[in-house]
């Protein structure tokens, strides 16, 4: 993504920022002029990734702070807000991106796996959105932009995703309700719905050549998505270019959804 000044001087929080879509959005935010709060899980792998990302943010001429923690723990959301306010005094945009999708068949799905996916994808989104929204309401000037990464899976089913698709539908619904609840405070809430994006989540699934070719064949633009394909839409929703956009759901899927109709 080419550098621009759409987010000049703003503070953007990105959850699950160490890799994939979150990383692309965090870096694009810095390249667009924002200081970035980088949330990541905090294990050895994501810590190394977050350190590398902070180096890239610095190279883009902006600053960043790191906040590790399991997003399904409400205390992580509190720590994210505290870190942002201590470093920068406010939060202008939140990208609630952290999520998991361990593919599994339905009939033999362990209940603990069901609970874990709900806890990370939906509970985690609620906790961080609520914590950041309270900060946006309290700060001066009041307001901000909240962007949740939902999925095309909020609109269509998936045989190996019966634990995942309900959470993404929930995230979409959460943003619609929050747009109403938080609008009076100048807080805009929108969702991005990625299609098939090549990330660690689906790396193994897409390693099957026939499966990959099948997926590509369903997309009018003729290719799978890349994490950077979400960066521009996220920056747009965080910027003043979308100052009258709230309660919206933007598909970023290369045309896949309409081709399935």
Automatic annotation (TrEMBL):
Gene3D superfamilies: NAD(P)-binding Rossmann-like Domain (3.40.50.720). This is 3-oxoacyl-reductase. GO terms for biological process: fatty acid biosynthetic process; rhamnose catabolic process. It comes from the Eukaryota. Residues 10-188 form the Ketoreductase domain. GO terms for molecular function: oxidoreductase activity, acting on the CH-OH group of donors, NAD or NADP as acceptor; quinone binding. Keywords: NADP, Oxidoreductase, Rhamnose metabolism. InterPro entries: KR_dom, NAD(P)-bd_dom_sf, SDR_fam. Belongs to the short-chain dehydrogenases/reductases (SDR) family. PANTHER family: (3R)-3-HYDROXYACYL-COA DEHYDROGENASE, SHORT-CHAIN DEHYDROGENASES/REDUCTASES FAMILY MEMBER.
